[in-house]
Amino acid sequence: MIDLPVEQIEAARAGDPSDIDRLIETIWPDAYRLARAILGESHAAEDAAQDACVIVYRTISSLREAAAFRVWLYRIVVRAASEIKRRRARREPEIVDVATSSDESIRIDVWRALATLPPGLRTIIVLRYFEELSSREIAAVLRIPDGTVRFQLMIGRRRLRPLLAETPPPSFLSTDEVKFNAI
Q: Phi and psi dihedrals of 129, rounded to 5?
């Protein structure tokens, strides 16, 4: 989850290339993680995160308020990931590259379960439980009503629950208030 000092964002907005470079270095891991969660594949996620960082680099001076940076960045990453997904869908079937961890079985099941969701639901679930955005922030990122976000979160949890029934359930399947830490 991105938590940058306002001063760092303001310095980048002022247009100094070295300040923008530092900002890009800081946001890269979060941009990649969000794109990876949306796309389910590391190479495509790198492309999406890179595209998003280029957009940030070129347009940071147009950001009106430093406080809006997080939502602004997530909107850019979601758009970049969606564009890559659209381009790849025309050419090839979806490939899910499952990363491993110390708790491989839970991680694999969660990635596989997320891959079964339609892109819109997956994006909302990822923004809520991976990036810890509120439903209001997700609504701002996706430019949809807050009520729609809450409804989609409910639908997403319902679809994921049976897919993850074999493993210990990730915390987000029981309540919205608990952070999703399985991945």
A: -100, -20
